[in-house]
Amino acid sequence: MDLDFDLQLTDRQPDRVLVSVLLRPGRTGPVDVQGVDVMLVCPEGEPISHRMLLPIAGTVSQTIVSTVELRGHGPLPPGTRIAATAWSAHQQWEARIPADPGTQMAAHCRGDVVVRPEEDADFPDRFLPLGCDERAALARVFPWLEACPTELKVVDDDTLTGEDDLRAYCCDELGLDEDDADWLADLLNE
């Protein structure tokens, strides 16, 4: 019997998480499942929430997703994990994921977790721009940073009076030759 059993962190608060539990039959077809439980565990492996039994039992012949909120007995320590178990008469499946925010690769690559400095009143100076020496030190480790512009250019609207001036300015900023500029202008006109 083959079962795809997965967890996805949907939301996290200081003392609780919202997690989706996904069960999907594998290539061998429908799977008999007798139960599913999920709970929070500390980095040492001890439970720090109540064990939640989900109302899932029977034959899983298509994808089932159940979302549940797990509340810790207090604030969740760093390194907290979400642990889930699904079982049948002859087999059990386990899934574990970190409960820390922004640890899932897909969420990180999509940029789902956005840091908002204005919401972080406890650390008002956490996000300060890098100084020249700090940026140079980072550029030694990450060479692609050196190519990034360090200052934004501000263009006064009064200096660009006509469409030709604007086109020339944009072409200069983008490094376009005359042929590429014509192609871009045609594309924008369409």
Q: How would you portray this structure in words?
A:
- With 190 residues, the chain is of the alpha+beta class.
- It has 2 domains: 3-110, Immunoglobulins (Immunoglobulin-like); 132-189, no CATH class.
- The protein contains 4 helices and 9 strands.
- The chain has a 4-stranded antiparallel beta sheet, with no helix packed on it. Strands 1-2-7 form a 3-stranded antiparallel beta sheet, with no helix packed on it. A two-stranded antiparallel ribbon has the order 3-6.
- Strand 8 (81-87) and strand 9 form a beta hairpin.
- The protein is elongated and about 75 Å long.
Q: How is the topology of this model organized?
A:
Layout: E1 3-13, E2 16-25, E3 31-33, E4 35-41, E5 52-54, E6 58-60, E7 64-71, E8 81-87, E9 92-98, H1 105-110, H2 132-141, H3 163-174, H4 178-189
In a nutshell, what does this entry contain?
The protein contains four helices and nine strands, in the order βββββββββαααα. It is an alpha+beta fold. The strands form three sheets. A four-stranded antiparallel beta sheet has the order 5-4-8-9, with no helix packed on it.
Number of helices: 4
N-to-C order of helices and strands: EEEEEEEEEHHHH
Question: What percentage of the residues does DSSP assign to strands (E)?
Answer: 25-35%
Q: What's the β-strand tally?
A: 9
User: What is the CATH architecture assignment of the largest domain?
Assistant: Sandwich
Helix content: 10-25%
CATH topology name of the largest domain, in short, is: Immunoglobulin-like
Largest sheet: 4 strands, antiparallel
Please mark out the parts with pLDDT under 50 across 5 or more consecutive residues, or reply none.
none
Average pLDDT, all residues = 80
What would you call the shape?
Answer: elongated
The end-to-end distance, rounded to whole angstroms, is: 56 Å
Task: Name the structural class.
Answer: alpha+beta
CATH superfamily of the largest domain: Immunoglobulins
Query: Would you state the CATH class of the largest domain?
Result: Mainly Beta
Rg estimate, integer Å: 26 Å
Total domain count: 2
How are the strands of the largest sheet arranged? 5-4-8-9
